[in-house]
Amino acid sequence: MTRNPAIASLLAQLDEAYERRSWHGPNLRGSLRGLSAAKAARRPGRGRHNAWEIAVHAAYWKYAAWRRLTGEQRGSFARPGSNWFPTPTPPSEAAWRKDVALLPRYHRLLRTAISTLSDRDLERRARGSQETIGRLVRGIAAHDLYHAGQIQLIKRLS
What we know:
The chain has helices at 5-18, 28-32, 37-41, 51-70, 93-100, 102-115, 133-157. With 158 residues, it is mainly alpha-helical. It has one domain: Four Helix Bundle (Hemerythrin (Met), subunit A) (Up-down Bundle). The longest helix has 25 residues, at 133-157. The protein starts with a helix and ends with a helix.
């Protein structure tokens, strides 16, 4: 556990948004629990993203934040491309499990990078970003929660 109070608070926010018990309901990981590949690939409407695409998108932005904190080169994400990634056709359970596994992988990397920061680092601008590191990390937590809500809605519409 970090001794820096601001860093500890950010890590708690990040974890609650992704995988820890929260007061608001399902976090991102919880919103994906029990989804089959077929259900994750189902679109709520024409031109709308499905839960699968949202899950990989969320993993990508955890990666992007990690990259901005560590200086890692662009293009090192597990799937080619950026931001939004197409659902494999036809969807398979193996491909779904592989893509869902990107979330904990990049969450751990991001969490590790954040835990090495000092409270003072939070006011610095993140590499390749107009935002401070603190705002970037808070944004990733909010991003996870936003997409958890979307996935919950998509599941209800299916």
